[in-house]
Amino acid sequence: MPERQLHPLTQQPSGVRRRPSCSIAPPDLLAWLAMQGTKDEREAALSSIATSSGIRSRRALIGQFSRELDQNLGLIGVVSLTEQGITVYDNERHGRSFLPGVKKRSAGDALHADPAVNEAFDGSAATAAFFHDVLGRSSLDNAGMELVSSVHYGVAFDNAFWDGSQMVYGDGSDRIFQIGGLTRAIDVIAHELTHGVTEFTAGLVYSKQPGALNESFSDVFGSLVKQYGLSQTAADADWLIGQGVLVPKLGAALRSMKSPGTAFAGDRQPGHMDQYLDLPDDNDPANDNGGVHVNSGIPNRAFYLAAIGLGGAAWEKAGKIWYNALTTKMGTATDFAAAAQFTIDAAGELFGAHEQAIVHGAWTEVGVLP
Amino acid sequence: MRLSVRRGGGFAGMVARTDLDSAMLPPADATALAAEIDRAGLRDLAEPRAGRAWPDAQLYDIALVDGKREYRYRCTDATIPERVRELLAWVDDRPERVESIEP
Fold it and tell me: Residue A161 and residue B11: Cβ atoms within 8 Å?
């Protein structure tokens, strides 16, 4: 494939990042070009915003621009999986002001001495391979976006999150998470990366039902990446999220997609709309953005039931149906009932009436559909 | 004075609470806590606008009881000011702190 002619603003990057980048341009200029520039300028600016870990102030615009401009970033330059950038940084416990941190490993590098670096790297690679090989997706943005991870975030930080442009992993404090546990679980890594896919596609708002769906899709593909790696059928899989990452006295795992509410002591996830917890989105930590990690149990169980009903490996049919709904049908405000209909529609388009009936039955069993 | 920090909403979806009471501290450390709280500006900080949520980011609810006055400050991993983060790190280093997981 011939090199495309780039806009003069762009510079040819070095290393594994093959796509045009204008990371030397000021963020405001990039934002202006992404909104107002010519088609080529928009593509180049959008690509640069999407791939540059240095432009922190514009991270929130990435998904929004992708949707508003309906850009197919794949036009800019197709990057094969083997060329795809995966980079892991060490935040050296400094926190947000030092993201991403010091570069420790990128594509082609040998194993690093730090296990957390290798775990984040290998987990990102396994997740990218799953999305590519099973779902035909090139990285999070479907255009080979660099996958950036930072490990050792903050001091004894008990969390992992997606900040709009990269994955962030704390070391855990032994209070909630085992020390080093967050990067050891492939489904945790795939969960965080899937937040990126969601941001680039449906853009589900992180609040109440759309937020719970956002969480559920991250659990769905987190679990599928794990099952794919283990070559498990839906019937053989444990359907647990984050098994072995919690301190043992809290419980075995964070969530159970098969039996929501049973993963740890105090797990209050419902598996049916009768137990739906209508929590306010009021910034109270106990209310969890309107119960996004609580009510996700309902769509999680719907996916489990669909996967069991469809048989075989869960990624073969159920995963493709859910992916199609997420990436081509759902929007920022999709609620449970709309998600149910979108997956039923996707089952019909991809497979047939038999599969549609199974997906319909799954949503009925969890009380989303009558 | 008493400081309580509730962290939740992160990947685990659990709420972890940390309490520190200056009455439990040696006098010099109690003075240091007051200085840390002053430095963080906890009594005067305007709460950050929510903005776009980071998936799995933690939510912070910080309460300060100072005599008869109470102050509350809420933020997230996306919006927590550096000086507040430094205060929390100081608290997390105190052996006198009391930690719990909310039901």
Answer: yes
pLDDT digits (tens, 9 = 90+) for A307-359: 999 999 999 999 999 999 999 999 999 999 999 999 999 999 999 999 999 99
Question: Strand A102-106 relative to strand A86-90: parallel, antiparallel, unpaired?
Answer: antiparallel
Residues of chain A neighbouring B54 (CB-CB closer than 8 A): 161-164, 206
Q: Beta strand pairing status for B59-66 and B16-21?
A: unpaired
ipTM score for this prediction: 0.92
Q: What mean pLDDT do residues A82-106 have?
A: 89
Domain A208-365 class in CATH? mainly alpha
Chain A contact set for B61 (CB, 8 A): 283-285
Q: Which residue from B6, B9, B61 is facing A289, i.e. has the nearest CB? A: B9
Name the minimum distance, in Å, from the CA of A283 to any CA of chain B: 7
Q: Classify strands A240-241 and A255-256 as parallel, antiparallel or unpaired.
A: antiparallel
Distance CA(A157)–CA(B7), nearest Å, equals 11
Residue B84 CA: distances (Å) to CA of A115, A321, B43, B64, B76: 31, 44, 11, 13, 11
Tell me if the domain spanning A81-184 has CATH number 3.10.170.10.
Answer: yes
